[in-house]
Write a structure and sequence with these properties.
The protein is an alpha/beta fold. The chain has two domains: about 1-65, DNA polymerase, domain 1 (Orthogonal Bundle); about 75-355, Alpha-Beta Barrel (TIM Barrel). The chain is built from twelve helices and twelve strands. Helix 10 (about 275-285) runs parallel beside helix 11. It comes from Paenibacillus curdlanolyticus YK9.
Length: about 350
């Protein structure tokens, strides 16, 4: 890892959408079709260097090499779960580390990507916030996680079929790079991931919920809610003091009205904190009449936090109360439990060991 500490002076080639590459090609006096060839090498053939782009003139390849860098991801650790989940801890060029998870389902392969090194949102039950926010990732550093996962799957002729932006960080605090990442992912000449197979999750950054509603995409929106009222949510999620519960709910109603799309509410159940029948009743009242779905998540035990898991019967009771009020609710199936697949756990262990 030591030899990788360096200042990143060149932009990453993965930072650029096809339209931006077309503009760059034109500005550099090259024929327009070169941008399409370049995009094809990056996302269809998935090469790891400009030198491999054999149908591009050597002088053009040299120009690309002079102007751009490939994202430096180095595999620090890779764990594979009994259920097929693969979790990577990647090193970046500046010695920071990020996590990426590949999940195998019977309906396809999903990848959970990270958008920031660390996180400043501060949810009290989450390992991602330990150590705070170090920096935002560029669009290319997010893209590289998916390309790496697809290269892994290429060995068995599989493909990334869906993406969840639910790894470390708050994507709506790194809004433009996240949106550029999404534009690259959905492009029909690239990885061509269906928009409805992508979900972006936010803790409730209100101005950018409105902005996202106006983007006119088919990409799914999930909101980490974790409490049915302002007071409890502020205790669990300090971000709620910046963007209060009622303001978040108002922005989500705008999103539904503008897009006609259903919202997923993510609710981490924490034993004795937010998982009582009265919490379920209150949540049902808050969500009444909204086009939504609740994803109940039994909280992972994080050694640095003191929370305990909700008993199994209580989880089913919480779900039953919501459904009694006609609120669709499912319980998230755990994956990668044996490899610390919860966001931030692997990175936290790595930070601890390197500090030692």
């Amino acid at each position: 890892m030591g030899e990788q500490i360096q200042e990143q002076t060149k932009p990453f080639i993965y930072d650029y959408t096809l339209e931006e590459l077309q503009a760059w090609v034109k500005d550099n006096g090259e024929p327009a079709f070169r941008a399409g060839q370049l995009f094809d090498w990056l996302y269809v053939k998935r090469v790891r260097s400009f030198d491999e782009m054999s149908n591009l003139p050597k002088a053009f390849r040299q120009k690309l090499d002079d102007q751009f860098a490939f994202v430096t991801l180095s595999e620090i650790t890779k764990f594979e779960s009994k259920d097929g989940t693969v979790k990577f801890l990647f090193g970046l060029h500046d010695n920071h580390a990020i996590e990426t998870v590949v999940m195998r389902h019977n309906y396809g392969n999903s990848i959970c990507v990270t958008t920031q090194v660390g996180c400043r949102v501060g949810c009290t039950f989450c390992a991602s916030t330990l150590g705070g926010l170090k920096r935002n990732l560029t669009a290319g550093e997010i893209v590289a996680q998916v390309v790496w996962a697809q290269q892994l799957l290429d060995a068995t002729n599989e493909r990334v079929s869906s993406i969840v932006i639910m790894g470390t960080g708050e994507p709506f605090e790194n809004y433009e790079p996240t949106m550029n990442f999404l534009r690259i992912m959905i492009h029909e000449k690239g990885l061509n991931i269906g928009q409805r197979h992508i979900t972006v999750s936010t803790s409730g950054i209100v101005p950018n919920i409105y902005k996202f509603a106006d983007e006119n995409t088919q990409i799914n929106l999930a909101i980490s809610i974790h409490a049915p009222n302002d007071a409890l949510r502020s205790k669990l999620m300090p971000v709620n003091r910046r963007f209060p519960f009622n303001d978040v709910m108002e922005s989500l109603r705008y999103y539904i009205a503008k897009t006609g799309r259903r919202i997923t509410f993510e609710y981490a159940l924490i034993g004795g904190v937010n998982d009582r029948p009265e919490h379920a009743e209150e949540l049902a009242q808050v969500l009444q009449g909204m086009l939504c779905h609740v994803n109940l998540i039994p909280v992972n035990h994080v050694p640095e936090r003191n929370y305990v898991r909700t008993p199994r019967d209580d989880i089913f009771e919480f779900q039953r109360i919501l459904e009694k009020h006609k609120i669709n609710a499912t319980i998230r199936r755990e994956q990668g439990h044996d490899i610390a697949a919860a966001c931030g756990q692997l990175r936290a262990k790595h930070m601890e060991s390197t500090a030692r």
